[in-house]
Amino acid sequence: MKHIILSLLLFAQVVSACSQIKNLPETSNNEKAQTPSQEDMAKFKTAGLVRYSNFGAKGDGKTDDMEAIAATHAFANEHGLTVKADEGFTYYIGGKSRSAIIRTNTDFGTASFIIDDTQVESRNTQVFIVSSNHQPYPLEGVSSLKRNQEKIDVTLPGSCIITVVDSNVKRYIRYGPNQNTGSSQTDIFIVDKNGNIDMNAPIIWDFDQITKITALPIDETELKITGGRFTTIANQAESKYTYYARGIAIKRSNVVVDGLEHRVTGEGDHGAPYGGFIDVSDCSYVTVKNTTLTGHKMYQTIGSAGVTVSMGTYDITVNRALNVSFINCKQTNDINDSRYWGIIGSNYSKNLLYDNCTFSRFDAHMGVANATIRNSTLGHQGINAIGSGTFIVENSTVYSRNFINLRSDYGSTWQGNLVIRDCVFVPANGRQVSASLISGSYSGQHNFGYACYMPEYITIENLHIDDSNHPENYQGPAIFANFNPQMTDDSYLEKYPYVKTKEVSLKNVTTASGKELRVSDNTFMFKDVKIADN
To answer: What region, left, alpha or beta, does residue 434 occupy, with left being phi > 0 and alpha being psi -120 to 50 degrees?
Structure first.
């Protein structure tokens, strides 16, 4: 079979062959890949798969194979073929602004991929984009929505993801070193063909006005991506908030990623942050399993408030996505090594799951509705959350300073319930700290764009706190940290009142120190919380 022609000097020899391509929208920069001969095409169709080497990939770890990789996927998409990497190959991917579009099952197998980010044409060009066969379209006839609404008056071609925005309303008005003026009110939910809303992922805001609303049909067939040994040679850019998106973007519903590995090399004393090697967005029903990822080195910059901040940098991001699960996953570096940032960040998402994962962090950034962590181990950055619905942590071990941190930069808010069951808490990985289970900070003087809540009902059952290494004068672990040291009596006025927890139900909470679990250092702030010791 002919190899892919990269040299312009030889381009004229393949004009007639290239003319056989009717439509290759996945190829960029107006370049067309070499078309296989009719004989080769027939062989691929009979086999049901195509390999990168069929389009000229060298796999020697030195030659840039991105053109061949992109062309292979374009051909596979056109003919409905599986893509299979060549066993034993090492594909080098340079900094060219080029993406391979994946719309068919892909088996990376045991092949290796080197992604060199030291010199890129565009830091926002993903290497792979898992793309839907459908396109979002404007949804007509919906002018308003209500929180927990069960149905909208539309008829759809099938189940769809609905994304809605009201740019007149600002939420998540961030406080602190990375302060900002907020983001447009946004929600995402699933509707069936008759307009019935999936109430497992309900609407969380009232929309009195809608400035944009789209429907994206959900792909019904499952797309599988298996294997692959990926290594990123880290960028050497200036340490500032210029995020790199150079991995696998999943923008299609009903996707399974199984057995992938991602490592990072070449990190020095500076670099720009990453937005996630696996980047899940605008989709639903995505499962990442049996996968090994890597925490990125933490760098500092000057935040929007003019002070030094540590930049968040991720190997996983989940944005505007529903029903996303991570099962039997881990990371290559020590989950308690504070030189490396936590592995995940998420925004505008619902129904996130960790099951049997060993990661340095779980994070719900700009709001998550419903999250579950089970059979897992969380490291130095622990569990960080703001959002709504039910948050469940069960049969898991947490090594961070607090068991759960309600993020203060977004109002330490969780509008719903919290369940902690059959867990172990090792405060600060065994360092001397005065332990508290639930941390956060709320002055009541900043407008976050919404009322802020503590979990309404908290259930803590079968929890062991390993506080054996504790400071002198340790009074025992607290349920709540001191969220507002200035609030010591009724004279303190909250301009934006905090809605406190109604009840904490305790059952079989034990401590290594032998000291009893208490409410808080700030007994006044939590004086009205009912403690039910069962």
So the answer is: beta
CB 374 within 8 A of CB 352: no
Length of the chain: 534
Residues 353-369 have pLDDT tens digits of: 999 999 999 999 898 99
Q: Where are the beta strands (DSSP E) in 266-375?
A: 275-289, 292-293, 300-302, 308-310, 314-327, 330-331, 344-355, 358-363, 366-374
User: What's the 3-state SS for 442-486?
Assistant: CCCCCCCCCCEECCCEEEEEEEEECCCCCCCCCCCCEEECCCCCC
User: What number is the average pLDDT over the span 15-27?
Assistant: 32
* Predicted pLDDT of residue 33: 53
CA distance 116 to 266: 10
For residues 273 and 244, is the Cβ–Cβ distance under 8 A?
yes
Beta-bridge partner residues of 421: 394, 461
Strand partners, 82: 49
Question: Rounded to two decimals, what is the model's pTM?
Answer: 0.92
Structure tokens at 159: 């189940």
Comparing CA positions, the residue from 42, 41, 72, 68 lying closest to residue 57 is: 68
pLDDT digits (tens, 9 = 90+) for 280-307: 999 999 999 999 999 999 999 999 989 9
User: What span, in angstroms and rounded, lies between the C-alpha atoms of 25 and 27?
Assistant: 6
- The strand pairing partners of 358, in sequence order, are 330, 377
CA 516, 520, 525: angle at the middle one, nearest 5? Answer: 150
Closest residue by Cα to residue 258 from 225, 222, 293: 225
Q: Read off the tokens for 324.
A: 């996303």
